[in-house]
Amino acid sequence: MAETATPAETAHVDRVRGARRSPAEHLADAFTSGSVPGTVTLKEIPYQAMVGIRVERTSDAGARVASITGGLPATCGEVTGAGAVNALWLGPTEFLVVAPEESHDSLGGSLVSDLTTALGSDEGQVVDLSANRTTFELNGSHARAVLEKTCSLDLHPRVFKAGTAVSTELAHIPVMLWKTSEENYRIFPRASFADFLGRWLLDAMREYASPEVP
């Protein structure tokens, strides 16, 4: 059973949250001004919980882990789970679990601790990777066109369907690319590359902005 946090514990967590700075926070205004609503928009979704898992999905431990994540993907590109918690395929026995911020640092328990408990003493690994990456969300009717300027994957909807996530490169930066709906993509670059990739995406979006009026 989850324990109830004391007021002091809650205040401490609030102070820590308030002191954090996301990898692309300094680009927030540029993302807003460079976006064209309905055509292509860019924003950062900071502080998502991300957990790296290594486990044999068909094992007893895999089944226990899957009960928390809403399943584990069986093939490249597959995403399992629904709603807040999703698992992305990285390899036959390697997965990236993505969930909202509150899943990471809940005072009454966390996604990491739940997954660690599910794995138990069986063979495998659970690693908190939340600080390793950030999340960009690219949305709009021309989002795919922006990505196609640098991504070597075939992103046509017949091939790259909604609900697919793969490892690829954007602007020579390794990322996870997750198509969450027909016009919405989530991009997971490593934190150290967030500034470069954010500025690259802004530049790639520039042609869709309305010309300035003298």
From TrEMBL:
Biased composition (Basic and acidic residues): 11-22
Record protein name field: Sarcosine oxidase subunit gamma
Chain residue ranges for the region called Disordered: 1-22
Pfam family, one: SoxG
